[in-house]
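To close the section, here is one more complete example, presented without commentary so you can practise reading it yourself. The ligand is magnesium ion.
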Amino acid sequence: MKDTSLFHKALTISLEEHPYIEDFLNSFGLDVEPGPNSLQQYLDNLDPDKLEDLGINYQQLCQSLNDFLAGMLTLKEPLDKVDSLTIIGGRDKSGNAENIDLVLKPGEVICIVGPTGSGKSRLLADIEWVAQGDTPTGRKILINNQVPDSKWRFSTEHKLVAQLSQNMNFVMDLSAEEFIRMHAESRLVTNPEEKVAQILKQANQLAGEMFHPDTPVTSLSGGQSRALMIADMAILSKSPIALIDEIENAGIDRKKALDLLVQEEKIILMATHDPILALMGDRRLVIKNGGINKLIESSEAERKNLKSLEELDNKLLALRNRIRSGETLEEI
Ligand SMILES: Nc1ncnc2c1ncn2[C@@H]1O[C@H](COP(=O)(O)OP(=O)(O)OP(=O)(O)O)[C@@H](O)[C@H]1O
Ligand SMILES: [Mg+2]
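Output:
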């Protein structure tokens, strides 16, 4: 694929829209500067002797630039916009029909509540897998009212869903900073260093205990790695749907974590046992025996109670900190 317009626009514009063109040319030892000439004119004006010194000829350079740009442009293709996510009910563990047809919209936070083992993680997994009646629940998931394109199900680049799972195992031996940089680079953001710094800063604000960017990811505490992944998800992920399986037990600032995620226009689904998080959602699904049993809209009265719950929670948090720092709680 040759994007001819890209080769014929003024370099000033091409370099601004596609800053990696400069990186590409620099990697061959060639300098390029913004200006009125087009990329094609720039290539045509290169001195053949200079190219020979650099170990490449005009044809090879044009070919590999073209291949490189084709690859980059495919990756940069914008995601199709997600306007709705529909969950078409299947059956609970006893085989009873769910009788639900639920439509979720961007900017919404939906909490999933229910006893341990009731099927909260299963519902998140159905969404991640974009189930089509092919999971134990028989649920079907539609995107924009349609069975989604298979690219959503199988492509790693066009990820429909970003998932924070209950169990996180880092297998790589990288520092927190290297790990995030790798993510930023693989997602082709234009200013990776800025994003990396932003993510590390946010993660440290969420985590109870600060960590240094050099800390190996394998040495981060549960809460710290959770905080890192939440900041990563909020700042880097372009996925229009975010699934979160339990953030409450991780010892991080839950409210800040959720606020950070809500800033982006995503559909957020969160499995939780935590009343504060549950009330922060717009709606909540109650799961019972593997099925969606009820849909509750957070009411005005509940929102009022959220305030006093938060005060209670802050008190508990302060007590927890006092215990951690070795104080006694004879007076509270
Ligand atoms: N509708 C269903 N039909 C058959 N199996 C189901 C159904 N829903 C859930 N299950 C199965 O029940 C088991 C427990 O479900 P799950 O892990 O989702 O529970 P959970 O609510 O996330 O529990 P916890 O709060 O402990 O994390 C899983 O093996 C899951 O696959
Ligand atoms: Mg679970």
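Once you have examined the tokens, check your reading against these statements. The longest helix spans residues 300-324. Residues 181 and 196 are 6 Å apart (CA to CA).
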